[in-house]
Write a structure and sequence with these properties.
about 300 residues; Rossmann fold; 2 domains; 3-stranded antiparallel sheet; 11 helices
Length: about 300
C-alpha cells in the first residue's frame, strides 16, 4: 500500500479504515514529543496508525482528525496518556545485554558490600524500566553477591513514563517464556510459581526480590524528584527515540546524581556525547562517572 507524501497537506495516507492524513500524523508526533520527548520521523506514520487504530475504534470516532481534537482537549487528558502508552516502545527481557549485569556483579558491587553491611546505602536507578524485567535483573544481580540484601538499605528505583508498564512491574508476574533467561536456581530462590492467565505456569517475584525494587512513574523530560546519589544508572535503549539535544541534556542531568566512579549503562547502539568531563568510557556501553563538575 502506498501513502501520500507528508508534504501533500490533507491528502490521506492511502485507503484505510479511518481517514488519516499527514497533518494528523504530525499533530500526534508533536503531542508525543511535547509530552515524552520522543521524536517520530515521517517513516513512523504507518506505526502510529497501527498503534492507535484500536483506540479510535473503541472510542467510536470516525477519523484521526477527531482523535487529535480529543487528545488536545481538557476532557481528553486520560486518552492522551493512553496514546503515549500505545506509542511508547516497550521491548525488554530479563538480563538483556548480559555483560552489563556481569560488570555490575563483578566490578561495581563487591567494593560496596562491606560498607552496606556497616550501615551504608546502595542505590541503583533503572530509567525507562518498561515492565520490570530490567530492575528485577539488577536486583537479582545484587542478591547473587548479597543474598540478604533485603535486610539492608539496598534499593533499585524503577521508573517509566507508562503507568501500564509500572503496574505490570509492581504486579511482578511473568510468563514461563519471559523468565527463561533467569537461572533455574535464581528462579527457585527468588520467585514463586503461580498459575498464569491461560492456565499455564507463570512466576511471581518473591518478597525479598520485590522489597529491593521501588516502581515510580517518571517522565525523563520533566522534573526529577530524586535526591539520592546512585551507584549505577541503567538507561538503555530509551534515549534512542529522543532528539540529539534532549539526549545530551539528560546525560548531563544524570551526572550529578551519580557518585564519583559510579557507572552509567546505556544501550548497545548508543554513545554518550556532549558531556565532556563528566564520563569516561570504561567498557563498551559502560561509562564511569568522573569527579568533575558539570560545565
Amino acid at each position: 500500500m502506498t501513502t501520500a507524501s507528508p508534504t501533500n497537506g490533507e491528502s490521506a495516507f492511502g485507503d484505510r479504515e479511518f481517514r488519516y492524513t499527514p497533518r494528523d500524523f504530525r499533530r500526534i508526533a508533536d503531542y508525543l514529543y511535547t509530552d515524552a520527548g520522543i521524536a517520530l520521523s515521517d517513516a513512523k506514520a504507518p506505526l502510529v496508525y497501527a498503534r492507535l487504530v484500536k483506540r479510535i475504534r473503541a472510542l467510536g470516532l470516525e477519523s484521526f482528525s477527531r482523535y487529535c481534537a480529543l487528545v488536545n482537549s481538557a476532557e481528553g487528558a486520560d486518552e492522551r496518556a493512553r496514546m503515549t502508552d500505545a506509542l511508547t516502545t516497550n521491548v525488554t527481557r530479563f538480563f538483556r545485554e548480559p555483560h552489563h549485569f556481569t560488570h555490575l556483579r563483578n566490578t561495581v558491587l563487591p567494593p560496596l558490600l562491606d560498607g552496606i553491611r556497616k550501615g551504608g546505602r546502595l542505590r541503583i536507578w533503572s530509567a525507562g524500566c518498561s515492565s520490570g524485567e530490567e530492575p528485577y535483573s539488577i536486583a537479582l544481580s545484587i542478591l547473587a553477591v548479597m543474598p540478604d540484601a533485603a535486610s539492608f538499605d539496598v534499593r533499585v528505583l524503577a521508573t517509566d513514563i507508562s503507568a501500564q508498564m509500572i503496574a505490570h512491574g509492581v504486579q511482578g508476574i511473568y510468563s514461563e517464556a519471559a523468565v527463561a533467561p533467569v537461572d533455574r536456581q535464581m528462579r527457585a530462590d527468588w520467585f514463586v510459581p503461580v498459575r498464569g492467565a491461560e492456565g499455564g505456569r507463570s512466576w511471581k517475584v518473591g518478597p525479598a526480590l520485590s522489597k529491593l525494587v521501588n516502581f515510580r512513574e517518571l517522565n525523563l523530560t520533566k522534573a526529577w524528584p530524586m535526591t539520592a546519589t546512585y551507584h549505577a544508572i541503567f538507561c538503555r535503549n530509551v534515549l534512542i527515540y529522543f532528539e540529539e539535544q534532549d539526549r545530551v541534556r539528560i546525560w548531563r542531568r544524570m551526572a550529578p546524581l551519580l557518585a564519583p566512579d559510579a557507572r552509567l549503562y546505556i544501550g548497545h547502539s548508543e554513545r554518550v556525547y556532549g558531556a565532556s568531563g563528566l564520563y569516561a568510557l570504561e567498557a563498551p556501553t559502560t561509562y564511569r562517572r568522573l569527579a568533575g563538575e558539570a560545565e
